[in-house]
Amino acid sequence: MQNAVNIIGAGFAGCESAWAVASRGIPVRLFEMKPLKFSPAHKDRNFCEPVCSNSFKASRVNSAAGLLKAEMRMLGSLTLECAEITSVGAGGALAVDRVKFAEAVTAKVKSHPLIEIITGEVTEIPDGITIIATGPLTTDTFAEKIAEKTGGLLSFYDAAAPIVSAESIDLNTAFFGARYGKGDDDYLNCPFSKEEYDIFYNALINAETALLHDIDKPLKVYEGCMPIEVLAKRGYDSPRFGPMKPVGFTDKNGKRPYALVQLRKENNEGRFYNIVGFQTNLKFAEQKRVFSLIPGLLNADFIRYGVMHRNSFVNSPLLLNKNNSLKTAPNIFLAGQITGFEGYMESAASGIIAGINAAAKFSEKPPLILPETTMIGALTKYITDESVKDFQPMGANMGILPPLDERIKDKALKYSKLAEISLEELEKEINNY
């Protein structure tokens, strides 16, 4: 009979998982390799170290980030509590003093009587109920063990393309259709005139790129995931012979466009679209400015911007159950960025759910599966949706929530209504669980 839940990794997800399990009266063995060994990105010996920004994004509840925090608060989040007591001025965002925040989380975790800290690198997955929360910089040795459990489906991606909401695409300009008419109308196509292409191309090659963390250098650019701005700098026609090739299409006037960008559905519902072949390392503001020049995307709502960095995560839609456990090994749960939850608070939220469900497994109780009308439920649905192709990590955004029955044009009012529904549904789930 197992006498504790194993949790590997004391980052945002791991600490939340440990807290959720221990708060339910179940002993925890929390494994953390710091301070004996550090990843290339970590320097602080404390748990839950923010390695990039110290901002946890917006606090207002009618924003995706704020709604996520509100849900986490209702679920008893440890990291949110520590963030609020170590916050620094950041306007409408929640930002923290990095050192004090990590110290606060570490002190809470270490002081819990049911959490045992085991220091050292884990090289084997322990027997029994285990939560893996090792993050995007999982050590090579342990990554191999995860790959063995997941059938080799652990992926390393260097780049991702932006995603836009379907309702923000101008269908008076973009049109549905397949190249040469082969296949179903799964793509939206944005046609360029020569003049439009010239403007876009010049903006693209002169746009400002984001700095990469030292751990990602030297940058290796693979042909299959080359940033669109790098390709464009090879020559004026390079994009037109690559992801922007116009062959096989005619526009609404019956002519072949000068260039063309395709948008691909991210899931069967078609609520958001990926900009095909547009992996990028441009700064987020530059992506908004430049990619809005694509015909049909002038008022696009960017659900996720493109990123380029080292990132380790599993193919969750094929591998995970809705309770965060592996389909092939239901005693093993995954939490945090390794599942495709992208962001500090998203990782923490994933840890809460994995912890609750690991505790449920330990106690032989039913799992907690949140409805997709909640932000955490919608993110969970996304990472476990088998219809999602070319899976990439996703952060909290209003675009993944189900659309309202009523159409509300004002974005602030619409988001407020979505938040209201989300919190009401979560309260029902908590009361009934």
Per-chain topology:
Layout: E1 5-8, H1 12-22, E2 28-32, E3 55-58, H2 64-74, H3 78-85, E4 87-88, E5 93-96, H4 98-111, E6 115-119, E7 130-132, H5 140-149, E8 154-160, E9 163-165, E10 175-176, E11 187-192, H6 194-205, H7 228-232, E12 259-265, E13 272-275, H8 284-291, E14 302-304, E15 307-314, H9 316-319, E16 332-334, H10 344-362, H11 375-383, H12 411-432
Parallel strand pairs: 1-2, 1-7, 2-6, 7-16
Antiparallel strand pairs: 3-5, 4-5, 8-15, 9-13, 9-14, 10-11, 11-12, 12-13
Helix pairs in contact: 1-10, 2-10, 2-12, 3-4
The number of domains? 2
DSSP, total strands: 16
Fold-level CATH name of the largest domain: FAD/NAD(P)-binding domain
The N- to C-terminal Cα distance equals 25 Å
CATH superfamily of the largest domain: FAD/NAD(P)-binding domain
Q: Provide the residue-averaged pLDDT.
A: 89
Q: What is the compact description of this entry?
A:
This protein is an alpha/beta fold.
Please give a structural write-up.
With 433 residues, the chain is of the alpha/beta class. The chain has two domains: 5-160 and 310-432, FAD/NAD(P)-binding domain; 163-305, Elongation Factor Tu (Ef-tu), domain 3 (Beta Barrel), CATH 2.40.30. 31% of the residues lie in helices and 16% in strands. It is built from twelve helices and 16 strands. It has helices at 12-22, 64-74, 78-85, 98-111, 140-149, 194-205, 228-232, 284-291, 316-319, 344-362, 375-383, 411-432; strands spanning 5-8, 28-32, 55-58, 87-88, 93-96, 115-119, 130-132, 154-160, 163-165, 175-176, 187-192, 259-265, 272-275, 302-304, 307-314, 332-334. A six-stranded antiparallel beta sheet has the order 10-11-12-13-9-14. The protein has a five-stranded parallel beta sheet with strand order 6-2-1-7-16, covered by helices on one side. A three-stranded antiparallel beta sheet has the order 3-5-4. The longest helix is centred in the last third of the chain and has 22 residues, at 411-432.
